[in-house]
Design brief:
The chain is α/β, with parallel strands linked by helices and 434 residues long. Helix content is 25%, strand content 24%. It contains ten helices and 20 strands. The strands form five sheets. A nine-stranded mixed sheet has the order 5-4-6-7-3-8-9-10-11, with helices on both faces. A four-stranded mixed sheet has the order 12-13-15-14. A hairpin with a 5-residue loop joins strand 8 and strand 9. Pfam families: AAA_25, ChlI.
Amino acid sequence: MGRCPGCQAWGSLEQVEPVRTGGGGRTVVAGAPSTPARRIAEVELDSARARPTGVDELDRVLGGGLVPGAVVLLAGEPGVGKSTLLLEVAAQAAARSRVLYVSGEESAGQVRLRAERTGGVHDELYLAAESDLESVLGHVDALRPSLLVVDSIQTMSTASVDGSPGGVTQTRAVTVGLTALAKERGLAVLLVGHVTKDGGIAGPRVLEHLVDVVLHFEGDKHSALRMVRGVKNRFGPADEVGCFELRDSGIVGLADPSGLFLGRFGQGADTVQPGTAVTVVMDGRRPLLAEVQALVAGANIPSPRRAVTGLDSSRVPMLLAVVERRGGLKLHDAEVYTATVGGMRITEPAADLAIALAVVSAKRDAALPADLVVLGELGLAGELRRVHGVDRRLAEAARLGFTRAIVPTGAEVGRTGMQITEASSLREIMARIR
């Protein structure tokens, strides 16, 4: 053949030798590279630097901001505030460049109403109510935005593959198309994702592998606290947490959320009640002060209750057994209620000592010192075990005005200006605070 069947040009065909890859006799033909290979030192970094979104708490989780060409998947339960957060990000980004917000779940008018309520109306923020991938690409060609928000990926579909919107085939095809668009044009893309009843991201697991960043948006419907937790991040830490408060006027970042988790925050020492203890937990790499409360009620009850809120329901009964057996405190015939303050969820073993001392304080009806913070994991033998990041935890406690701390023996404590008490067992601590 002397004529190309595609472009109809004569004499344009070249003969090449097939490159054998081995295995089954299959062969592939080498093609022309799209871009030449360069030395790694010659690769420019400007196109890979993160740019702040204007929402500080989200930037903390992203590792400084959005990288051009990055695809970010934000997943969360219905009504947790995903669309509100991304509309705030879109409004902040529109102050610097053009932004396209595509909604497949709501009309443009509904998005405009939310933007009016949250103060997110901007001249460079464009809205499009589309659920077809090809139409979205047409909007991108016409507007040339620097940021694309798609709400949500499960409502989008493409005519190139079969299947209903939200299905495995359609979700994968749409994500592949948007990812290719982002990499080709250096366009940052934010995707909203649904979750299953088990809390996992809806759709095929390959969806999380295709995107660059996976964030989980968490929150209790009975609390205004919201947390964005990094699960995967190719451009920064994957264990960072951002804290937000959902209000009528929108969503606001909380740079110092410890006050939400302390019932005594901003109050005097005389307001501290028996049955409370303060600890410092690490959520990702972020230290957060948390208050644990306990109530011991009744005596000689044949089948006493053990109610747990905000704590590990399988670990609290074990700690109660340790307190009774190793601490010599009678609890088997009394009802015990334990909870956290502010809707916080604590599963870290470093809070074991706080739970135990809160129960001891409630049983003895004697309050712990208001300026005391306790850290440590309890073993079944009643020994106090070391936890990681003690210096960072105590530095956060000292910043909020706590002056005394009980830590496990041998803990690496930096210069915090606090009065540090080391202990090796629960019985030793109970004897000191009697």
